[in-house]
Amino acid sequence: MKLVKSLANLGYGSRKQVALMFREGRVTDAAGEVLYADDAPAWDDVRVDGEPLEPPPGLLLMLHKPVGHTCSTKDRGRVVYDLLPPRFALRSPTLSTVGRLDRDTSGLLLMTDDGQLLHRIISPKAKLPKIYEATLAEPLRGDEAAIFASGTLMLESEKTPLLPAGLEVVSPTQARLTLHEGRYHQVRRMFAAVGHHVVALHRSRVGGLSLDDLPEGEWRLLDDADRDRIFAVGIAARAPTRSR
User: Fold this and answer.
1) Strand partners, 151
2) Which residues are bridge partners to 112 per DSSP?
3) What is the 3-state secondary structure (H, E, C) of the chain?
4) Residue 191: is it exposed, middle or buried by C-beta count within 10 angstroms (0-12/13-18/19+)?
5) What are phi and psi of 169, to 5 degrees?
6) pLDDT in tens, 127-149
7) 23, exposed or middle or buried, with CB in 10 Å at 0-12, 13-18, 19+?
8) Cα-flanking dihedrals φ and ψ of residue 112, to 5°?
9) How far apart are CA 211 and CA 105, in angstroms?
10) What is the pLDDT of residues 57-93, one digit of tens each?
11) How many Å apart are CA 219 and CA 81, to the nearest integer?
């Protein structure tokens, strides 16, 4: 791919605008030598206004999403793209969230511009566990774990029961829930179905990948080892089957 198109796809501007950047000598190599549109340098050797290029297509990043941000590009309020470099929102292919966390949910959010990777992660065939930390308005009764594990729980307006889910009691009003599917507002609706109101919700893990010490509102690029960690759990452990 020509360097002009590569820079345009990264959000540096239209092809016409990027071509002007070349004519102005703003695109150089790491040594400061001016590059031309037909040059084919290594990605890591290109500089725009003295700065390295943004990550190439095929990126995957992890964001510690705060409460109050949505995963939509059309929302008038705060969106997760506000937490990333501005050019990330202009990339082609588009940088998309891998699934969604609602405005009132914090935690691990994956984003990628690789469509195949996105679908591989969210596919039911991957059987990737997702772990949520829930804080409830009232203490747990004690029967919730058995109900969630039964594979018979039905959510309002749905026609198929949920897959069995694991519930670990952390405190009388705190629980750790492990899901192997992703339905709309599933955690909140599950607790509502057994008479509980979730007052705070945080996703701590997707597959074998956790936030570790990534601060809230911060992000980092994921490498091949991180990708392997995502899928390692899905390969080793199968989602539980429904009770018959």
Assistant:
1) none
2) 60, 96
3) CCHHHHHHHCCCCCHHHHHHHHHCCCEEECCCCECCCCCCCCHHHEEECCEECCCCCCCEEEEEECCCCECCCCCCCCEHHHHCCHHHHHCCCCCEECCCCCCCEEEEEEEECCHHHHHHHHCHHHCCCEEEEEEECCCCCCCHHHHHHCCCCCCCCCCCCCCCCEEEEEECCEEEEEECCCCCCHHHHHHHHCCCCEEEEEEEEECCEECCCCCCCCEEECCHHHHHHHHHHHHHCCCCCCCC
4) buried
5) -80, 120
6) 899 999 999 999 999 999 999 99
7) exposed
8) -155, 160
9) 15
10) 999 999 999 999 999 877 778 999 999 998 998 999 9
11) 11
Token pair listed for 34: 């001016």
How high does pLDDT run on average in the chain?
Answer: 92
Taken as a whole, the chain contains a residue count of: 244
Residue type, 74: K
Q: Are 134 and 142 in contact (CB under 8 A)?
A: no
Query: β-pairing, 46-48 with 51-52?
Result: antiparallel
Query: CA 100, 183, 149: angle at the middle one, nearest 5?
Result: 125
> Do residues 46 and 35 make contact, with C-beta atoms less than 8 angstroms apart?
yes
- Cα–Cα distance, 55 to 69 (Å, whole number): 24
Q: What number of other Cβ atoms are within 10 A of residue 8's Cβ?
A: 19
Hey, which residues does 46 pair with through a beta bridge?
Answer: 29
pTM summary value:
0.89
Rounded to the nearest 10°, the torsion over CA 165, 117, 225, 88 is: -110
Distance, CA of 72 to CA of 178 (rounded, Å): 25
Active site residues: 102
